[in-house]
Amino acid sequence: MKRNRQKRRLIRGVFGIAILFVLAIFAYRWTVNAPLYVSEEPFDLYIADTGLTSWDALEPLRSSGELYRPTALQILNSLRGNPKAKRGHYRISAGMGLMQVLRKIEFGYEDPIWLRIRGYQKAEAIETQLMEVFGYSADSAHAVLTKHLGFDQIIPNSYQVYWSYYPKDLARRLAREHAIFWNSERLGRAARMGLSPKQVLVLASITQSETKQRDELARVAGLYLARLKIGKRLEADPTVVWAYLDRFPDAGVIRRVTRAMTKLEHPYNTYRRDGLPPGPLSTVEPEILDAVLKAEAQSEIYMCADPVRPGYHAFARTYAEHLRNAARYHQSLNRRGIRR
Q1: Which residues span the domain enclosing 25?
Q2: Alpha-carbon torsion 25, 30, 35, 36, what sign?
Q3: Signed CA dihedral, 185, 186, 187, 192: sign only
Q4: Are 292 and 207 within 8 A, CB to CB?
C-alpha cells in the first residue's frame, strides 16, 4: 500500500515537472524567443552611432510597423539593462526571436554586405561609391585611395565586406585581395616583361581604353611593349583624352584626338612624355590584366582604328604603312563629320 502511494506521488511529480517544462517552453517561446519581425522582406538595420543603446538603435525597425510584440521587446530589453549597440549592418529576418535580435546588435553579430568594384572606373568614381556604400565623408573616402591604399592596388571584383569597416579596415581588406591576385606566377610574368605590377596595371588601363575586343588585347599591349623596348614614346590616344579631360573636365565626349590635344603639356600625355604615365587611367578587370601579362613585344609599333572592322585596329610595322592606314581612318571620320 505504501509502495503504491509512493509510486503515485512519483508519477504526479513527474507529470507536474513535465507540465512545468512545457509551460516554460511556452513562456520562452512567447516571451524571450517570441518572433519579433513579421514581414516577409528582411529589414536591413544600419547602426552608425557607437553610443546608441539597443532601444534607440532599434528605432528604424520599431518605426517600420512590422514588429510583432513591441511591448515584449521593450520589457525584455529593460530587463537586460538596455545595453549599448555595436556599430554595423544587421539583417533582421522574419521569425527571429526577441533575444536573438537584442544579442545580435549588442555583441556585433554583423551581416556582411557586397561591395562590387567594377573596371573602367576612375579614382573619383570609386571614392563616390565608398561614400554611398559606407557613408564615408569625402575626405575619408579619398584617404582610402591615397593615404591607406594606392589606387593602383584596386582589383575589381565582388567582395563580401562589413559595413562597419572604417577606411583603414577597408584598405587592409582590399590590400589583401591585391596581394592574392599578384601571386608568384603573375609576378614572374611581369618581371619577364620588365615591369612592376603597377606598371602592368598602367599598361593594361591604356590597352583596355584602346580596344574593347578581347582577342586584340594582347596584340595592342605587345605593340606598346615594343615601343617601350626601343625607347619610342607610346603616343597612346587614351592618355591624351585622359589628360585633356583632367585639364578641361567640362569638355564633353571626345571622339577624335586632334593635333592640338596631343601638344597638351600633362604628365599623362604620352605624346609629350616618355614611358608610361605615372598611374593607371582607370581600374582594370582581372581577365584584362591576365591578357596583358601574356603579351609579348612584336615588330608592330604603329596602329590606328580600322574603318573596315569597327572596334578593331590596323597594325603596321613601318611609318609609311601606318600613314596609309591613318589616312583611310581620317577619311572615314571626315565622311561622318566627326571633328572632335
Answers
A1: 1-30
A2: negative
A3: positive
A4: yes
pLDDT digits (tens, 9 = 90+) for 39-66: 888 999 999 988 899 999 999 988 888 8
Write the CB contacts of 4 (distance below 8 Å, at least 6 apart in sequence). Answer: none
Domain membership of residue 330 (yes or no) is no
Q: What span, in angstroms and rounded, lies between the C-alpha atoms of 170 and 131?
A: 12
Q: Rounded to a whole number, what is the largest CA-CA distance in the chain?
A: 122
- Name the DSSP class of 83: P
Using only C-alpha atoms, the chain has a radius of gyration, in whole angstroms, of 32
Task: Determine the Cα–Cα distance for residues 295 and 220; give it in Å rounded to an integer.
Answer: 8
In terms of domains, do 172 and 159 share one? yes
Strand ranges in the chain using DSSP code E only, listed in sequence order: 43-47, 88-92, 113-117, 157-161, 302-305, 313-316
Which contacts of 64-70 are long-range, i.e. CB under 8 A and separated by 24 or more positions? 64/39, 66/37, 66/38, 66/39, 67/36, 67/37, 67/38, 68/34, 68/35, 68/36, 68/37, 68/38, 69/34, 69/35, 69/36, 69/98
Res. 20 pLDDT band, cuts 50 70 90: very low
Residue 316 lies in a domain: no
Last residue of a domain, one of 131, 156, 181: 181
d(CA 266, CA 242): 10
Condensed to tens digits (0 to 9), the pLDDT of residues 203-229 reads 999 999 999 999 999 999 999 999 999
Asked whether residue 207 falls in the same domain as residue 271, the answer is yes
Q: How many CA atoms lie within 13 A of 72 on its CB side?
A: 18
Give the span between the Cα atoms of 66 and 42, in whole angstroms. Answer: 11
| Neighbouring C-beta atoms of residue 214, cutoff 10 Å | 11
